[in-house]
Amino acid sequence: xxxxxxxxxxxxxxxxxxxxxxxxxxxxxxxxxxxxxxxxxxxxxxxxxxxxxxxxxxxxxxxxxxxxxxxxxxxxxxxxxxxxxxxxxxxxxxxxxxxxxxxxxxxxxxxxxxxxxxxxxxxxxxxxxxxxxxxxxxxxxxxxxxxxxxxxxxxxxxxxxxxxxxxxxxxxxxxxxxxxxxxxxxxxxxxxxxxxxxxxxxxxxxxxxxxxxxxxxxxxxxxxxxxxxxxxxxxxxxxxxxxxxxxxxxxxxxxxxxxxxxxxxxxx
Amino acid sequence: xxxxxxxxxxxxxxxxxxxxxxxxxxxxxxxxxxxxxxxxxxxxxxxxxxxxxxxxxxxxxxxxxxxxxxxxxxxxxxxxxxxxxxxxxxxxxxxxxxxxxxxxxxxxxxxxxxxxxxxxxxxxxxxxxxxxxxxxxxxxxxxxxxxxxxxxxxxxxxxxxxxxxxxxxxxxxxxxxxxxxxxxxxxxxxxxxxxxxxxxxxxxxxxxxxxxxxxxxxxxxxxxxxxxxxxxxxxxxxxxxxxxxxxxxxxxxxxxxxxxxxxxxxxx
Amino acid sequence: xxxxxxxxxxxxxxxxxxxxxxxxxxxxxxxxxxxxxxxxxxxxxxxxxxxxxxxxxxxxxxxxxxxxxxxxxxxxxxxxxxxxxxxxxxxxxxxxxxxxxxxxxxxxxxxxxxxxxxxxxxxxxxxxxxxxxxxxxxxxxxxxxxxxxxxxxxxxxxxxxxxxxxxxxxxxxxxxxxxxxxxxxxxxxxxxxxxxxxxxxxxxxxxxxxxxxxxxxxxxxxxxxxxxxxxxxxxxxxxxxxxxxxxxxxxxxxxxxxxxxxxxxxxx
Amino acid sequence: xxxxxxxxxxxxxxxxxxxxxxxxxxxxxxxxxxxxxxxxxxxxxxxxxxxxxxxxxxxxxxxxxxxxxxxxxxxxxxxxxxxxxxxxxxxxxxxxxxxxxxxxxxxxxxxxxxxxxxxxxxxxxxxxxxxxxxxxxxxxxxxxxxxxxxxxxxxxxxxxxxxxxxxxxxxxxxxxxxxxxxxxxxxxxxxxxxxxxxxxxxxxxxxxxxxxxxxxxxxxxxxxxxxxxxxxxxxxxxxxxxxxxxxxxxxxxxxxxxxxxxxxxxxx
Lengths: 268, 268, 268, 268
Known about the structure:
4-hydroxy-tetrahydrodipicolinate reductase (chains A, B, C, D), homotetramer, 24% strand, alpha/beta, Rossmann fold, NADP binding (chains A, B, C, D)
């Protein structure tokens, strides 16, 4: 386990002599962008030097001397943003969605002639959610049974959630690697209602609950003879993504090339 | 709220002068029957006078002077047992399954010429489970959203469980009575996997989890703007049914006629 | 169970012909007042006719024709506000804190010559929290063991919370009424750390958790042989108090005199 | 992550050709010993060759050709048992309690002239409990707040439980290593009841709940701005320790020398 205190979610007071890292935010007026600006401003070792959104010049971030750019924009503009930053030798921390293997390969190509520049693209900056997935994956091979419950506000359109589906696939993969058979289940179709046993994601049942009052919650239940292990993550607020974003901002200059996900930054 | 201490699940010490109630057990060697015999033996105000099972004479319970009989037998013999007890002026507490409206009507007919005899038939003697259903029903009309999760060992063949399905119907009925529309749900079929949103029981989603290590558990989640109320019952052991059985044994002599369910005994 | 759909937390569409109820809000610029104004505006059967705060004339609410006033002000001004409203024949729904028996008696005295005016004073307008207390109280006598856990943000200064302490007293009272002995507990002081078993509130252990990320949560755990019943309320947002406030606003004209708490409005 | 399928808790079908491992059980008539005998009998790759308890000859296990001995006896006899096994070149898996640093050093000394013999001593063979501790330790440095709740049957004499106290110390150590300050807590003594905030174990609050119906349960709550991560282990039955015991039996021949705890066997 690393003892690097910069990983701690609290705002570690910077020692006076350490130079500040200059940060520019793209999509600064969006819901996530506003949170990022607030979090950067509150961090003593970071300085917010540029806030850019639709209608602003991208050159602002370069002119302002940003060393790192945080991008929470849109799939249709994020590739241009990343290319611009790489050209300008600015590291990128990207929370915008919509990346596929082809886009990732394109970015990797742009980075080849720039061995010092780092780009991190993460589908989820929530450290808690990432830990949940990691722990579920590690625990999976010790338990014959596993099921996932995800609970969200009723305005969500997809079921199961992307995070729950991803967790299920990681867990299923760990079970296959351990040679585990499917979880035991005596349910008889004739005695059951359709849907009762949830959605099947690579053999792992996933149940989606939609309830007024909830925000975003995920629970992994693992069972063995005489015991269960339950891992649960509750997210109440976008603020929960900021420690992960700041962690990436602080580490990206030391991680040249393309990084996908914040897992490798957590030192697990 | 009643203050009748006989409702308390602890074995209230009987005052020395109070005569003991004589109890016979039918199906005494079955899993539930064994538990009943143990529980009656441990109760200071009850006396176990007859244990009857396949191959024993039913007359034993009458000969032994049983005032109350507890029946955990089988659907194919329980009607004969009840008729015999009514004829002998013995009260019956019945946990055997398989009663429909017609059978209940038959029993009510048998009871007509016997105004002092009581028969109680209950699908569930678990006080916790009955309270859960009751509270869910009472709370339902205050919450736009409600979903039910039931969790059982993987040997269970039906999904959802009978108790969860019954809870869902009670909740649905309370919602209709309050004029509540269906719970909000923006799930789009195109973005979802089949089964993710659970089984539909009169408009209430019910999710069934099957996990090695679990026994029998039920959770009702109610949601309104900014808050949720969660009611959960965990049953680990058949012992959990005994307080309900003893409660019925103690009260049945004061409740002539046919009673279905233990709800009315709880004084709620 | 009542079928009065006006109890439902959704905004029941008012039938066109029904006259609107005119509502004034005192403390309209406070955190709760702002929520009340928003909720009244969103309700089709209510009309917000006056918003009053420090520096505004109290007469505004009378001049605007308010039939009901909602008061979320301060202990040092609320008695004057209530007196004024009673004099003007305006019903009062009061969420301001700090009432003791003497103040309640004073208000009852003011109401005597005004048999048509209603004043409702509630320490908690959260319907979920009130239901939790009610259910815990009803269930208490059936379980030998009961403990309470309350979980809040770390900025809270009191422990246990007022709601948890009140729940504990209600539960303890129900247990005494049922003749239940103290919950079983073999803990030996020599083998224990101080505080491990929580605070003692009339014999009921109460545990207070303070965690960054949490808002306000309460859990009542009830245990009997082989089973547990858990009742949990999670409150994420002040919005959760609004259904209770609106319920009171709608019912207060039919409830002359002094009412304490919203329990009696819930039709339980 | 290892893909060694022998770690899986299910009884992996042994390939027909693989020779069976011969196992002797010391303390075979004790509660844990009986479970171990049952589990060894059920495992296709293990053979139970000797069951020894008070009054039986220890030589039986050697005569029967045991390659591995499992010891669930008593602190006053376990050291003799271990010495005997080492002398006889039999590997030991020990669940008996009461080891301190001096005893461990003595055993290490006995093992020096026997480089092929392995002894594993574990305070807890529950894989779920060990995983919980491990995950809590890994997650600790990412969360400003952490508290622990442990829940047990009311017959338990110590509070907090040994496992919860150990978890708290591991978490506290991980927080110190990360330079985390104490968790935020605005509780004022004047507004609080003694014990409400739990026991203090190296700065981590631990709360102990004792409830009829429960068995052994532990929950670690971690909180950061806008999110919480909850890790919970529920143990219902001694059977839950058997996968850990069998895992040790299968691996001990490949792990000469002294091993404390099953953590290193889990391949985490």
